[in-house]
# Entry
Amino acid sequence: MLDLLIFSVFVLLMFLTPLLGIIKYEGLHGIIYRVSKLNTVTDGAKVIFTIFNIFRVYKPLKFYSAFFLMFSILSLTAAYPVIDDWIVHRYVYHVPLAILSTGLGIIAILSLSLGLILDAITQQYNVNYEHKLLNTSINKE
# Structure
């Protein structure tokens, strides 16, 4: 029983040390464990947040269309019992779901319109940048 406990602690430490940022060094005085300055979870979260931020700035229509799709699906899912009540009973018994569905639908439409506006601004910025590059190259010649 004690052997099983020692083995399970060893296996647990073997799998948790990389996740916790503990590095194993084999030196002259045996095995030394040091804590790494890198953190897998927070560093990975920073990288993913940076990727989303770059995607949001350079492709706003695709970014906000994903939110539009998500909120639209949630809105239709919340609206299903409300529509079912109206068809069957001609009365809405799920009023909070109706309010939730309306709010999610409004958020979906706002997200799509925000994506369209920001996409137009981004395209205009790119056109202005290209004109600026062409004007500077013409002025140098």
Q: What stands out?
A: Helices lie at 2-20, 40-58, 60-89, 95-140.
